[in-house]
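Ticket reopened. Same input as before:
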Amino acid sequence: MGARAPRLIAEENGVDLQVTLAGPGDRVARIYRELRAAVLDGRLEPGDRVPATRDLARQLGVARGTVTAAYDRLSAEGFLEARTGSGTYVATVSLYDATGDAMGRSTDASGDGRRARPGAVHPLPLWEATAPRPSRRDRPLHDLSLGQPEPALFPLEVWRRLVGAQLRRSRLEESAYSGRGSPRLQREIARFLGLARGVVASGDDVIVTAGAQQAVDLMARVVLAPRAVVAVEDPGYFAVHRLLETHRVALRGVPVDDEGLVVEAIPPETRLVYVTPSHQFPTGVAMSLGRRVALLRWAVEHDALILEDDYDSEFRFGEQPVEPLQSLDRVGRVAYVGTFSKSLLPALRVGYVVPPRSLAAAVREAKRVTTWEGDLTTQGALAEFLAEGHHAAHVRRATRVYRERRDRVLAGLAGCADLLDVVPSVAGLHVCARFRDESVDDREAAARAAARGVRVEALSDHYRRLPPRPGLAIGFGGIGADAVPDAMRRLEAALRGAPGSGTD
Amino acid sequence: MGARAPRLIAEENGVDLQVTLAGPGDRVARIYRELRAAVLDGRLEPGDRVPATRDLARQLGVARGTVTAAYDRLSAEGFLEARTGSGTYVATVSLYDATGDAMGRSTDASGDGRRARPGAVHPLPLWEATAPRPSRRDRPLHDLSLGQPEPALFPLEVWRRLVGAQLRRSRLEESAYSGRGSPRLQREIARFLGLARGVVASGDDVIVTAGAQQAVDLMARVVLAPRAVVAVEDPGYFAVHRLLETHRVALRGVPVDDEGLVVEAIPPETRLVYVTPSHQFPTGVAMSLGRRVALLRWAVEHDALILEDDYDSEFRFGEQPVEPLQSLDRVGRVAYVGTFSKSLLPALRVGYVVPPRSLAAAVREAKRVTTWEGDLTTQGALAEFLAEGHHAAHVRRATRVYRERRDRVLAGLAGCADLLDVVPSVAGLHVCARFRDESVDDREAAARAAARGVRVEALSDHYRRLPPRPGLAIGFGGIGADAVPDAMRRLEAALRGAPGSGTD
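Engineering reply: fixed in the latest deploy. New output:
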């Protein structure tokens, strides 16, 4: 509030009215708002007389017409009423009851009535259970946390060109309300999935989403009634678990062993099984063929749906590509979810789902009613990015880069082979290692690593309920190959409790 | 499939095996997939012997190493097993049971097992009730349907520059996982809302969404338990009604009169009231101050939340701006929803919600778990667009353009004053007129207009259950001012049943 702002203390009819002309907005609007606030706050009560326009204008140092315009507006909206020959009064429509006493007059001096207070509307309990997320403001020297692709690999100049080409008038005029998204992107994703992942899909089968989370959300909306039982991997991916819980379902953790999800441990009443078979999150295990077959059979026998999240297996380091569950499915029991957040850039926020055909219309409808079809500029640019071969080239190039980082992480872990067993994996942007000594506190180990400037994740942090097997998850998406050896030396030193700490 | 593709009919052990090398993918992958498909389809059964690599290579005209690589991969994945000295066999892991008999062997010759069939997983009933949406492929001569802003007004060159400036590496490297979206955009929206709409909000109060539909969706998630009663305007906005229904709530239509929603008709058990007070959809009525106060009081007395959708009132044509319900709210009972889809362009898909502070953390969490924070490039560009004043300038310019169109529509309606009463309104991109003769079939009238090349909407199409008062809703966002007179002449001719039809 400016120090030189005109200010008025009016004491007509005992009313203490302050009007200040500081702040944004024209003077008419300013006077209008000040007076209206006084009415709403109860400083002016129904039947109070307000200052004559001439008096108020003089005191504020503005033209009388300015005050008159503000009064006219307040009168038109029913806040004030002119009584012929006797002046202008606060209208007797009982604003006061609605905004003051009826809900307990505000007692906070700032006059800010929007803050939470007794009687305020509250969220449903399922939204109150939110744990605060750990702040990541403090960047460590070496960040080996999970889910971070390397932004420097993103072919920015190509992307700029493609986005620019989308920003033409003819594209922007296309209706955003078809609910269909970009058919071209759907076709390109289907082609990419068929070639790169063996997924059986046409463009009509692909529903483009705002990231994989929305894909999971849409599937949950479409098949899960409240209290439905949903099986998830334990350890598993908490962001999706949390999302599923908000659908009022009963989440059941199912153990994961060296062949992936233990199918026989799935509760029989399960309606949906959420799995990451290509590169289990967080352990990295690839689900064995036997388990895949068993899971498909289980889904048929129990009339359940499998939700396969293939979040980062574009980056493959083994000889044998492991193809998705969806490519084995001949009976429409698998919904396949993928994302460009890992293979390209999280900021794109583009994912997709290929549901069984029996669900496709419903999923498309669920997308339409919630977010229509998303950002068509990004979708159009991504379609061209795929069609022109940039995506395939990017994945090849990025795989080489990530392979080098991964090899160096594995080399570092080999130096700790007396402490840690590496979990075999063939894809993705992180590896896991389990402590040979199962009594190790992996959170404490991660904290010791952090004290030496290395951020890794404790496997225990990804367990729901099972007695966790202690270990570390080590991401290599966000660290340059040159930095890996130093990071791994520091990690080893932390694990061995060698002297010397700090991030120097 | 290429005509010259090598093709093999193998009849070993009575197995009819066809391998073709046409189609995309390298030859190893092709052989791998053909054989795998044969196993999955049951053409090869567990225990069957597959051709020797030497024989298959000869027959396909490929190097033996190619076939060996495919067999190795199939073996690694468990489809085949080599028996020393006796050849390679289909593995006895019972793929067949899982993908064939257990779910009824596919009988469709295409081998496409993903289509819906008995036993397929089905969506929940609430997703099956979807009415097919009318196709809009046939563009009429004059399109006066609702919800279409003028794309030619969009300042494309400015937007291109701002988007281009966002596409720099430092921006793309920002984590997309904070769940906070662009704080700058939140602040700019709060500033814009305060200046232009009198909405009381700081940046922390603003949650940016993928359009207004997502804003409504998030609010519904956060406050509506299954079977909660939700009051909506009747007539009203069906896209939002449909969205709310998918949250398993009980929707109740409440009549709208010349002062807006009839507050006393709201069912007492209502938990949420969805309203469009600035420019009621579709009638265009502005809610009177008395009703606004009554609605706020009602919400307090009944412990309910008001969801205010201010979808298109940036464009104001009256002397007196009508400020939102939210600006009257001193007790945290109003969630304010807005969008840039109408004021700028639907394709942007950016909206926002300003919930009461008691709900803000939950709404933010709901956004985070479903779609993280959306497209940061668009959000960043929009923040600059607002900060540099382009949005305010655009709204001023567009208001002039729309005012001219609106005046011409109203002039045309004045010529039909014996048939139609214009519903007074002060904002937005459409006007309504009711038939003086309440026995008129407005759908039939709209069909007659369509036959003359003019698309308008029948008010009856926007009613849920109440006996509709017939009328027409006429949008002017998508038609140039020069075309309006011809459109209105055609409309009048249609209404009067004058001779001459067609779109000439």
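The first strand of chain A starts at residue 7 and ends at 10. Chain A has 17 helices and 18 strands. Please confirm and we'll close it.
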